[in-house]
Specification:
five-stranded mixed sheet; alpha+beta; about 35% helix; 7 helices
Length: about 210
């Protein structure tokens, strides 16, 4: 049994289930799905912050959660070759805490500014008894204009690969991180672990820039 599975995340099982979903819904994409309307190809995706939320318990942490929420969906759009257009959020808690919610929204606002997209709506739900007294969950939904089509099938010998370094641990793999480190160790390295996920939309060239896919 690998360490990731020991942390409670069964990647192989999830991938197997996803393959079954794709059999029923063959139009499902990779990082983002695409849909064409009147000659305009749109890309859409959704994601969350995951168990990193368990570590984001301070006001600045809730702002980080809002930024991460935007980053996880926007970065998936970018990875699919799309330019972000707009975003929607879903916030669910057992009891709505106005201060916590306000800080999460502030993080979303900062993420919107950084990504160049806009928040056009969302849903706020109170679900008594589901998350405990102070817990909450987040989901984000992003839509963009598909200007490039990035896929492994388009890669060929002689292509130039450009990359940008990560600025730290993104909002991925925190079930494993929480398994590896003790609570004390997590506190010691919290400055690195709780850094907001970088949003890459301003770094990736678009269709009319000098560097394009294909």
């Amino acid at each position: 049994m690998n360490l990731y599975k020991k942390s409670g995340v069964d990647v192989e099982k999830a991938e197997s289930l996803l393959e079954k979903v794709k059999e029923k819904f063959p139009g499902i994409g990779g990082y983002a799905g695409t849909f064409e309307v009147n000659g305009v190809r749109l890309a859409a995706t959704c994601d969350g912050v995951g168990t990193k939320l368990k570590l984001l318990t301070s006001p600045s942490g809730h702002i980080c959660a809002g930024i991460d929420l935007v980053a996880m969906s926007i970065n998936d759009l970018i990875a699919s070759g799309a330019r972000p257009l707009f975003f929607l959020d879903y916030f669910a808690s057992s009891t709505l805490d106005g201060e916590v919610y306000g800080n999460v929204l502030e993080g979303i606002r900062r993420g919107m500014d950084e990504s160049g997209s806009v928040l056009i709506g969302g849903e706020t739900a109170e679900l008594p008894g589901l998350f405990g007294t102070s817990g909450y969950d987040l989901a984000g939904f992003a839509v963009g204009l598909s200007v490039n089509e990035y896929s492994p099938s388009r890669v060929s010998r002689g292509d130039i690969l450009a990359g940008w370094p990560s600025d730290g641990v993104h909002s991925n793999g925190f079930s494993l991180i929480r398994k590896i480190f003790s609570d004390e160790e997590l506190r010691d390295i919290s400055g690195e672990l709780l850094r907001p996920t970088r949003i890459y939309s301003t770094l990736i060239p678009g269709k009319d820039d000098n560097l394009t896919s294909g």
